[in-house]
Amino acid sequence: MSPSDAPVRIAIAGASGRMGQELIAAVLQNPAVQLVGAFDRAGSPSLGQDAGVTSGQHTSVAITADVAQALHNAQVFIDFTRPEGTFQHLEAARTLGVKAVIGTTGFSDEEKTRIAEFAAQNAIVFAPNMSVGVNVTFKLLELAAKALSTGYDIEVIEAHHRHKVDAPSGTALKMGEVLAEALGRDLKDCAVYERYGHTGERDPSTIGFSTIRGGDIVGDHTVLFAGTGERIEISHKSSSRAGYAQGSVRAATFLQRQSTGLFDMFDVLGLRD
Ligand SMILES: NC(=O)C1=CN([C@@H]2O[C@H](COP(=O)(O)OP(=O)(O)OC[C@H]3O[C@@H](n4cnc5c(N)ncnc54)[C@H](OP(=O)(O)O)[C@@H]3O)[C@@H](O)[C@H]2O)C=CC1
Ligand SMILES: O=C(O)C1=N[C@H](C(=O)O)C[C@H](O)C1
């Protein structure tokens, strides 16, 4: 086996989280990658457990709160945590030369700039949605927005589980950016995130966002183009988290061919124009 064929050595941040567990399962079943580290924050009840426990597998990797120890043998770490955690992990990874796949959402614009600065040293894939289907949906939205640029009001509607802490979802915001760019607008100027009371008539230049939170909804996104006498809806619905995890593993193997730079799933999937 040549070094380039060797499995990519992966560490998982937020190892006991919903995505952390899904990622560990995806890594354990994919021979192109190898689990070498799993970490979670201090105080997590999962510390010391075998990382494979939820997948029903025994691994030689125990979940630790020691980020440097979890990263020391890794080539890439995959982070689905919270923005403040992601930056702590990026700091540790910088000194060790470890690349990153970041799926965490809820970053401010200033924080996104900081991620780009980290990527100048070690390559990063950063995307609010790692599923192939959602990234293809972004392309469909671009096409639809260009074709329906006048006479159609655009609304982005998203629904997620009751535990989600950020709104609108990172995916919904990215959809807004794709739509605004296709229409030659700036999302900052045309997004409407709230409506209440006497709102006045709808401004046709706006892109509206609606957020639903409840139960165990994995992640639904719909963009509505509402015209006169017709409506077009483009929807993506996730029924499990497997697609996010498999996309993340694909992103980690993509990083094998990159030393520095900031990438997203369009780069990983070959969808960039
Ligand atoms: N890009 C994509 O495709 C997707 C992105 N996401 C995003 O991934 C993130 C995680 O989602 P999900 O797995 O559902 O969330 P969970 O809350 O289930 O998991 C988050 C994990 O990160 C840990 N964590 C929380 N805060 C910190 C911190 N400050 N430092 C270090 N670790 C921390 C949690 O530990 P503890 O339990 O102790 O709090 C937990 O282990 C969200 O931002 C979500 O939007 C989710 C799905 C797909
Ligand atoms: O928190 C989640 O669950 C999800 N978060 C991502 C987002 O904010 O877009 C991706 C997916 O929708 C699931």
From TrEMBL:
Residue ranges occupied by any Dihydrodipicolinate reductase N-terminal domain in the UniProt entry: 8-130
Residues noted as binding NADP(+) in the record, renumbered to the chain: 41
Domain Dihydrodipicolinate reductase C-terminal, residue spans: 133-269
Binding site for (S)-2,3,4,5-tetrahydrodipicolinate: 161, 170-171
Keyword hit for NADP: yes
Record keywords, A-Z: Amino-acid biosynthesis, Cytoplasm, Diaminopimelate biosynthesis, Lysine biosynthesis, NAD, NADP, Oxidoreductase
Localisation: Cytoplasm
Enzyme class: oxidoreductase
Gene3D superfamilies linked to this entry: Dihydrodipicolinate Reductase, domain 2, NAD(P)-binding Rossmann-like Domain
Catalytic activity: (S)-2,3,4,5-tetrahydrodipicolinate + NADP(+) + H2O = (2S,4S)-4-hydroxy-2,3,4,5-tetrahydrodipicolinate + NADPH + H(+); (S)-2,3,4,5-tetrahydrodipicolinate + NAD(+) + H2O = (2S,4S)-4-hydroxy-2,3,4,5-tetrahydrodipicolinate + NADH + H(+)
GO CC aspect terms: cytosol
Pathway: Amino-acid biosynthesis; L-lysine biosynthesis via DAP pathway; (S)-tetrahydrodipicolinate from L-aspartate: step 4/4
Family per record: Belongs to the DapB family.
Subunit structure: Homotetramer.
Record-linked NCBIfam families: dapB
Listed name of the protein: 4-hydroxy-tetrahydrodipicolinate reductase
